[in-house]
Amino acid sequence: MSKIKCLCTALLVVLSCYAKLWAQTPSDAIMMEARQACLLLDYNQGSFDQYWEGTLLRENQTIATVKRNAVMPMVAVGILDKLNFYVGAPFIKTESSEPNGGKFAGASGFQDLLVALKYRIINKVTDKGTFSVLATVGFSTPVTNYLPDYMPYSLGLGAPELSYRAIAQYKWKSGLYLRGAGAYLWRGYSEAEREYYYNNGSYYTPWMDVPNAITIEGIVGFWLWNNSIQLELNYLGSKSTSGDDIRPYNAAQPTNDIEMDRVGLLAHYYFSKIKGLGVVAYHNRVINGRNTAKINTTGVGVTYFFNYLKKQN
Amino acid sequence: MKPIKYVLLIFSGLLFFISCEKELPTLLSYDSYVFSSTDQAGGTWKPILMGSGDEIIIAAPAAVASSEYLQELSDLKQAIAQMSGADRHAVEYWSDNSAIRWNEIALELIAKYNLIPGPNADGTYTLPNPNNPSGPPAFPFAHPPYAVRALAYMSVAQFDGLISAWHYKYTYNRPAPFHQDSDINYAYTDNTIPSYPSDGAVIAVASKKILTAMFPLEAEYLAAKEAEHLRSLLLSGGYVQSDIDAGKQIGEEVATKALARAATDGMKNAQAPKAVSDSLAAAAFARFGWQWINQELPQRPVGLTPLYGKVKMWNVPNVELTRPIPPPNLDSPEYLADVEILKDYADNVTEERRRIANFWQDGLGTYTPPGHWNEFTKEFIVKYKLNPLRSARTFAYLNMAMMDGGISCWDAKYYYHYPRPIQTIEGFKTIAGTPNFPSYTSGHSVFSAAGAEVLAYIFPQESALVKGWAKEAALSRVYGGIHWTFDAFIGTDQGIDVAQYTIGVAAVDGAD
Question: Residue B19 CB: number of other CB atoms within 10 A?
Fold first, then answer.
């Protein structure tokens, strides 16, 4: 029973990939078995009225409060018991609150298509609990021609991204679990619609090198009420491996060196009467950063698990 | 192999393929070339800041058979023998047409300093102050009027300096060291231009001196660039030290003349105090019944350089000769039709309009629209294989015309003081940033049309291309939502008009 309930949570693992800078980043150690699938529909709303210009936390009435709403449909499929596949693409809408001094139009549209594979390397069950190690490889790339060089309204960084993530979890019989994850994000180039930009020097090209990044995650969580609800506290740290600072009172650009520390809460409830259905709610906030928004994000989602093929025996 | 392994293998292969790195260009790459002309009579051309090229006087060079010169040759060979990897890189970088490199340095500094000061915590704004350049905010704010002026003074000094250099080159006809001594190899293509004085040294010293005055916080950076450039001239095998020293003297003197003009051209008064700025707005309101009002939060008390229209022009005798007709009244059918056009563009941002708006935006943090036209110019200079003198001439007329265009445009902006679309269209949103000055006429339109006219004059083969670009640049501001169509169209006409004065000067300078 509890196993089936857990499955849909696996979807949230890869949310980190679409999230890029501003959305949530839970990761998970749960696998679906072969022939099982899960649908997730997630809605989240983020907003910020402060951001870090380099390391200086500031306000800017040109953009006032920037709101960022996203709807994310995603599918997870158990190919093998040890191998899961994920695909999703968020729709995002951005705008400033009124009044603002810049009068800039916001942006909306589908952002990046994400595909990912998760493979379970170790799953060691003892009388005390379960230890598992997993690896995720993900790839995302823009699916529309949104303009990445339109910060802070741009839908995303506009570059292809490869993510390599390792996840380790220990779950006690009591329902308590601890999880850690580390990822390396390789980002390609994003294309601006201008021939020149400044990045600590002149660049005569529309191509902007989007810095790679490393992330680490730490999660403590537990299952309650006969495994019908899962609660998590999570931390995400993210750091670019290169990049420039936002210049004084100037717009951000995809070449920036982004760092952030983010903390969050997540709850996932599984209905006992409707087989396969769950709801998830989460909130997270960036508490420290560099060249990034001090954004708070709240999201809700529905998860639905089913067998896409009948078991054959 | 299990199927899973195939999947992972294919996936990893795909990732590897995608992971390749690009080389992102940070400068214009070009090989040394045979100049399309050597312009032996270039020393007789009419300079801008002085009566003639021989107004700057340098000593006659030592004869090539003199012990003095032979010692210089010997020193040169020794220096070349001891070249480091960095020296070789510098020789390759600077090339034998170094106006291109100094133009790139100028554009880089413009982009670095093209940052509008933000508000203080109490909602006031502090202006950059040349007497306290470190700020904050740092001096200067290299906005388009500032940028085009810096480019104009640098280019004019280079041009005049090279006319002087050409005068002495073909007066004394001292051949380059690599012609004197077969042990010396020249790093570039031989154009058989006499080496005394070194044209590169004129460019190095004049450019560094002008840019240091324009960007005082960069003095150290510019001094290092100048030193590297001067050393590369020697190590190229093209010049002995006395060739370089004579060029330095010309560079120094011509830059002094240029900076003397700059000190009194009225730019220091352009950022008028609030009382003056308010009186300009009030005068427009009394005359026309409208006035531009800054929409930023907190509101900026003064627009950008209200008195830039009073700055001394290069080639237009009186700015009012180029002042355009008044823009339409705010209740006229023409104005109301424009409101509909702008709303339509805002509601229907096509890929093409967005691309054009962004391509020509050249906004804060970039090299500005005049910088964009300088960039095109560099490519044409290389394409048409111009020699250093003709390169400097091209930059000089281009930037004088664009600066005059800017002055004429700013005169119209603050005389007519016409509102921006975000001021008069309720709830209007833009995809480009609305600048802190009145709408009519569009600076991009005037700068671009003036620049295109000069480029069409110098490179007639490119006439249709560059004039098409200027029209697109003008329209880009309408697509961006920050200008009316008449700001763009009349601005284009204004730029064309202003440029004719500069082209008239170019036509009789002796080069054509």
Answer: 11
Which pair of structure tokens corresponds to residue A190?
């994003």
Scan for tokens 């600590």, then name that residue.
A200
Helix, strand and coil percent figures for chain B, each rounded to 5: 60, 0, 40
Residue B31 lies in a domain: no
Residues of B in contact with A249 (CB under 8 A): 115-118
Contacts with A312 (C-beta within 8 Å, 6 or more apart), sequence order? none
**ipTM of the complex in this document:** 0.95
Instruction: List, as one string, the DSSP characters of B284-318.
Output: HHHHHS-------SSPPSS-S-TTGGGSPPSS-S-
DSSP structural state of residue B217: G
Domain match, B328 and B410 both: yes
**Do B480 and B352 have their domain in common?**
yes
Q: What is the CA radius of gyration of chain A?
A: 20
Closest Cβ–Cβ partner in A103, A137, A248 for B430: A103
Quote the pTM value.
Answer: 0.95
How many A/B residue pairs have CB atoms within 8 Å?
132
Interface membership of B358 toward A (CB under 8 Å): yes
Q: What is the domain extent for residue B477?
A: 267-507
Read off the pLDDT of residues A25-57 as tens digits, 9 standing for 90 and up. 234 667 778 888 999 999 999 999 999 999 999
Residue B26 lies in a domain: no
Q: How far apart are CA B273 and CA B231, in angstroms?
A: 45
Q: Quick one: B407 and B419 in the same domain?
A: yes
CATH class, domain A2-302, is mainly beta
Query: Closest Cα partner for B91 from B219, B200, B196, B205?
Result: B200
Give the mean pLDDT per block of 10 residues along chain B (512 residues): 54 55 92 97 98 98 97 98 98 98 98 98 96 96 98 99 98 97 97 97 98 98 98 98 98 98 98 98 98 98 98 98 98 98 98 98 98 98 98 99 99 98 98 98 98 98 98 98 98 98 98 94
Q: Alpha-carbon distance A254 to A258, whole Å? A: 10
Find the residue in A nearest to B351 (Cα).
A145
Mean per-residue pLDDT for A241-254?
A: 97
Instruction: Please report the pLDDT score of residue A22 as a whole number.
Output: 28
